[in-house]
Amino acid sequence: EESNVNSIRQYVTAEVSEVMVEFQLDTGSDITLIGKDDWVRMGKPELEKCPTKVKSASGNELQLLGRALVNFTLKGSEGSGYLYVREHGNLLGLDWIEKSEEMSYHMGMMVNALSHSTSGSIQEELQQKFPKVFEEGLGRCTKEKAVLKVKPNSTPVFKPKRPVPYGALETVEKELDRLEGLGVLKKVNHSKWAAPLVCVKKAGGDIRVCVDLSTGLNDALEDEDHPIPPPEDIFASMNGGRYFSTVDFKDAYLQIELAEESRHLFTINTHRGLYEYQRLVFGAKTAPAVFQRIMDKMITGLSGVTAYLDDVIIIGRSVQEHNDNLFEVFKRISEYGFRVKLEKCKFLEEKIKYLGFIIDRNGRRPDESKVQPIKGMCDPKNQKELRSFMGMITYYSAFIPQMKSLRGPLDKLLLKDVEWRWSTKEAEAFQKLKDVLSSDLNLTHYDPQIPIVVAADACDYGIGAVISHRFPNGDEKPIAHAARSLNAAEKNYSQIEKEGLGLIFAVKRFHKYLFGRKFLLRTDHKPLLSIFGSKKGIPVHSQNRLVRWSTILRGYDFDIEYVKTDDFGQADALSRMIQKFPTENEDIVIAQVEVEVEETLHGAIRKLPVRVADVQEETQKSKLLQEVQKYVSRGVWPKKVDEKLKRFSSIKESLSCVQKCLMMQDRVVIPEALQKVVLKQLHEGHPGMVRMKQLARSFVYWPGMDEDVERVVASCNTCQVHGKTPRKVPLQPWKTPERVWQRVHVDYAVPENGHTISSL
Questions:
Q1: Residue-range domains of the chain with CATH
Q2: CB 3.0-4.6 Å disulfide test: which of 26, 248, 297, 470 passes with 344?
Q3: Strands 19-25 and 11-16
């Protein structure tokens, strides 16, 4: 058996400190080991203490005398590195092997003997050593509190509370109680500042409580001076790294306490009164810079560690070095009282994607996904699609002159009265233009010091987006492109919802570039400006999905701008001429919103004596509702409509299509055929007119619903008998006053002539 083992072992000779030494090859070892005898033969190079413990493949700790820094020559390549000295046995590890071109080439043929840690084992060890870091619940930073100030002479803005649907009251109150129990919120009686509460239903019926700081506070906040590290600094810190880990914090901002003097600024106005935030709020304009400052302070003095907002990146030139750095980071995280989200952490990766680049042991290279949407464009099928593509060419031709010489065959197809014929000649021109568009000539590297512009567009079957830099001369050059096709549910969205989806897709896809920095968001759909860009806050009567998406955007610092469709070539073509693109991780939030909206529909109908299928069927049978759905989907209503349609067009911004049903905000639009059975259910128990209207307004809607409720109650003897009537109070004489103006009596009357009389 011993001879069989020896037969597969491979050895190589290296010159170390002018002495020839034979080593056993071991690609599984991160370090190079040498026996004591050979160390003596080399002249006993000076030893230093080993900074970390080393384990064998069996998990046993190796007894080392120390390590020495030496020069060596291996297969014609010269280098320097550490030798770890032990009693017996020489092993050539990865740290030396990778410094030899020839040895690196043949690495795949070498034999593993000394094991390195795996991602799973690291995770287990971290959980054992730092259990509190992985606990459920909310962490609390013990080292520093967030101080946010308003600009001098800022006028406090106090916004009134927003109505909460009756059917959601109980759930909202439970969430407020939960946040109060966690120490996130605290009940207060008075505040000069107050922002409205925004409630968003999640899948399963839970509520996400948000605060709409766009209503005044964000404009008043003083800027935070602490810089967010530029990409070049981050990439420089990763040079030489072979192994990488990323750490994700759980509810990152909420783990930072607000300083006492800042808390009054972050007050929310609810139906239960005022609540004051005790923790840093996602959506505060200066929160990213505040968080970055605390992260930078936490990692001060650590090797191989970079913090970029709520991402902490750890690198190592070997597994051992990586693990040492990783454990030091977790030690700091534990000392600071933070908690991490284990499912989003990645350990011991050999490459990571970051800010448009792939980083691995060979350095960084552009991420092909930045231009994949352009490379994946399919040939145009008609003049409309070609015109959209040529709009993109025109947009970028300013700084790529050779585009003009390539577009000739395609321009001819756009001439009036020219028959559409797509031949090899046009296909070749199209491909050459795509190659130029996706080349380095048309891309610029991300630089946070240069203004950022994000454009997004949507059509019936796709969405496209591009993030660009605007240079001092006014030119815009793309950093990255993104696109994807719409799924079956999204194709049924109204046009305004598709356009809104495009903006959310763009912002989430380019999150790493945008978060914590001011940028310009562009759309060619003007109605979105009042929903996503209003300083008055999220409109109360906006559609379900748009309200949810608007709360997502509140965490970013941006201005929104309308651009005519004719001038929107950079995003328009991507949305129209895409092939099937898979849904990326960035789309999870979008998918989650769709789940929430569908759950709202099902949750409302569960409270009714009808099924979703019943509502779907009767909605499809109703000519009126089919016409309404058509206009909702197109996003365009006729200027003149009949009285029945007018009652829907007056609330068009609140309407949306969900699973072949029509919804008005969170309420289901009930077809006429089902209205009687719904009224019957609402009337059970004879709740009275006010209560019955409250119930109806919580879950359902149809034009004239209030009048129908009044009619049902008025025709019900039981409701009339038990209805509340004002109790007659006997007249009481007033005491004679002792002095003039001691008591004042005021009343008013409206005679038949229509004039109002006030009597004093």
A1: 2-116 (2.40.70.10), 166-361 (3.30.70.270), 368-582 (3.30.420.10), 608-722 (1.10.340.70)
A2: 248
A3: antiparallel
